[in-house]
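Could you join me in thinking about how sequence relates to backbone shape in a protein? We need material for that, and I hope you will provide a protein of your own picking. Once you have written the record down, we can walk along the chain together:

…
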Amino acid sequence: MNRLPGLGQQLCGALSVQQGTAGFGAVAVALGGAGASASNPCVTQQHRHASDLAIRGVDALKSGPGGRSSVSGVTATVFGCSGFLGRYLANAIGNSGGQLVLPYRCDDTDVQHLRTMGDLGQVVMLPEFSIRDEVAVKRAVSRSNVVINCVGAEQETWNYGFEEVHIEWPARLARAVKEAGRAQRVIHVSCLGADAGAPSRRLRTKAAGEEVVRSELGPLATIFRPAVMTGTEDRLFNTYATMAKRLPFFPLIDGGATRMQPVWVRDVSAAIINSLKTYEALGQTYTLAGPDVMTVAQQVAFMYATIRERNAALPIPSLAAAALAKAWQWVGTRSPLRGPTMFSPDYVAEMKGDYVMPTGVLGFDALDVAPHKVTEGLPIEYLRHYRAGGYDFGTLADDPAVGAFKPSSSAR
C-alpha cells in the first residue's frame, strides 16, 4: 500500500495553497501515513508563524509525538457516532489527535462516553441532530476535512424507512459535502450483500445508496461493505444470547443454513482508518469479512457453547417466520414499539442467501489489516458474561462437550 507524502514536502514548491485548507496528504500524514523527511526545511521550522498556514495548510498545525494529546490537523464528522461502528471510529480518530464533530439525536446519556474520545476541547457534540435538517447537515460538515457516514437501519420503524435512511440521506449528505468544499475524504459504510437484485429491501436500498454516493462524490468517496460485525455492543451474538436466556427454544429460520462471515468491529475500524492514509483508497469499494465462514446454526451453537447452555435451537420454516415478521412490522411501523430484528420481513428474506466474501474484490489485505477470528480471545470475551452464576461458571461448566465448538468451514 503506497503511503502519502507529508503535506510539507508537497507544498515546498507550491506556495499557492489556499489558507486553512489541506490536500489528501494532510489527512494521511495526520493519521499516521509516511511523514515528510526530518531534514526538509519546510517541516523542521521551529518557529511556526501565521504565514505558514498559507504555505503548508493544516499540516502547519500538526504538532506533538502522536496520540490524543497531539494535534493531527484532522477534523472528522462522524454521522452515526452513537452506533456500533461509529464509536470505534471516533475513538481511533480522537486517539490520533484529531478533532471530532459528533452529531446525534439520542439522549445525552447514550453518547456521554463519546465526550472522552478526544483530548480536552477536541470533541464537539451536536445534539438534537436530524438527517432531515439540511441546515444542520451543512453545519456539521462545514469545517471537516473527513466525513464518515455510519447511518443505517436494520429494520423500518414508525419514523424512518429504508429509502429515506439508505438513499435520501446519503444524497443529502453528499450535496452538503460538495457545497462546503472542505472534505478531502468521505467514508460511506454500506454492508456485504448490498445489491440491486438482493432478496431484501434493506440490501437493495443499501446498494442504491452506494450508487448515489458514487455519482455525487466520485473519487472523493470510499465505500466499505463490512460483513455482519461482532463485538461488545453487537446485535449478533448479544441478540442470540438474549433470546437463548428468555425463550424456551431458539428459532432457526429454515434450519439456519445461511452462510455468513462475521467480522470483528475493531478490524473494520482499523481498515477504515488505514484507508485514509493512501491515495489508492480513493473511489474504491472494500468488502470486509472475517476469516471464518459460519452458518447461522453454527453461530447459535457457538453461542450456546460459550455461555455453557445446552443447544435449544429449533428449525422453523421461513413461511411461518415471515408471517410472524409481518405482524411485528405492522406494529413497529405504526407505533414506537419495535419487534426483534431477527423477525423483521427483511431479515427473513435475507436468510434465503449467503453473505460471504466474493472473489475478485478488495478486502482487508489491501489495507494492511489481518482480521481476527471472532470465535477466539478478545473478540468474543463479552459473550461470557451471559453464563449462569458468573464468568467462570455455567450450567454445563463441567461438560467437556461444551466449549469445544469450532466453525467447521473456513474462508481461506
